[in-house]
């Protein structure tokens, strides 16, 4: 079992309402599908949605509902108010929506279309593999391209 699935499973216990911008004791809040088992592997990746903190809590609530309704890939997480060394801005946060296989472009783009529509996301969304993350591909560390897909494509 991998790090992602362990963390996601730990949140499946008792229901606890956590608000990203009011959470200071952990870097991430997690949402897990009640029926899909998500096990990350060598082809895991994620859509990254960046939001101003003024709307982050509402957008996280929407993504959490989508995950719990089994409309997405099974696991998502949201940054919190805890200072993260990988964050590029203290004024924004990120919601990460995982998919199990970045080579399954149909599923990857299906999830992107749902996120784009349901969240009314106005900017391009970017998809990054876990391999890129483990290799340290962050804008903050100088990576000029830290994604493999974009939605809408262009």
Automatic annotation (TrEMBL):
InterPro entries: Bles03, TIF_eIF4e-like
UniProt record similarity statement: Belongs to the UPF0696 family.
Protein's UniProt name: DUF1917-domain-containing protein
Pfam families assigned to the protein according to its UniProt record, in alphabetical order: Bles03
PANTHER family named among the record's database cross-references: UPF0696 PROTEIN C11ORF68
Domain of life: Eukaryota
Gene3D superfamilies reported in the protein's UniProt record: RNA Cap, Translation Initiation Factor Eif4e (3.30.760.10)
